[in-house]
Amino acid sequence: MASEENESKMDVDGVEKNNIADDNFSDDEAPSTVDDKKVVIGGNGQMDDTALLKIGVRPTPKPVPKEKRITTPYMTKYEKARILGTRALQIAMNAPVLVDIEGETDPLQIARKELAQKKIPLIVRRYLPDNSYEDWSVEELIID
Q1: Alpha-carbon dihedral of residues 81, 87, 90, 96, nearest 10 degrees?
Q2: Are residues 11 and 68 in the same domain?
Q3: CATH number, domain with residue 117
Q4: Which DSSP helix (H) or strand (E) runs through 136?
Q5: Does residue 101 share a domain with residue 85?
Q6: Which segments carry the region annotation Disordered (predicted)?
Q7: How many domains does the chain have?
Q8: DSSP 126
Q9: How many Cβ atoms are within 10 Å of 138's Cβ, its own excluded?
Q10: Cα 30 to chain center, whole Å?
Q11: Which backbone phi and psi does 61 adopt, to 5 degrees?
Q12: 112 lies in some domain
């Protein structure tokens, strides 16, 4: 009976579970976990930014006001591709069309017409290295 208590137990999925009470840790030495990752905190117990990044916790990005934007007002080819693809998918899923379609049935062609007329109701979010972001509406961006 005692040997059965010392053996590992299996959970419903057949994965081995160890009971922390079976380990030889005192309460103050028990390993702490964050998202099933073992975390060892040393020093004064305060976690700095590098310690937070190591365990996967990141500070919340902050928005940049419109008057202090630093990125280009030109839409990149990658933003254009994503905007057209997203809007074409919305149109294919019966979202309201915001331009005169003139008999057009292809969602991508309709999305291109909406982009040319700057009628697409989407926002482009550009993340910056200083943990901030800029939001640009499609109407504000210059399209080549």
Answers
A1: -170
A2: no
A3: 3.90.940.10
A4: strand 132-137
A5: yes
A6: 1-42
A7: 2
A8: E
A9: 20
A10: 32
A11: -65, 150
A12: yes
Average pLDDT (42-51) is: 58
DSSP sequence for 30-67: PPEEETTEEE---TTS---HHHHHHTT--PPPEEPPGG
For residues 38 and 91, state if they share a domain: no
Inside any domain, residue 35: yes
The answer on 118 and 88 residing in a single domain is yes
Tokens of 75: 């839409």
Q: How far apart are the first and last CA of the chain?
A: 77
CA distance 138 to 98: 14
Pair (102, 85) in one structural domain: yes
pLDDT tens, residue by residue, 106-127:
999 999 999 999 999 999 999 9
Rounded (10°) angle between helices 107-116 and 77-92: 130
Element (H, E) at 90: helix 77-92
pTM: 0.61
Q: Which of 9, 20, 51 shows the shortest CA–CA distance to 34?
A: 51
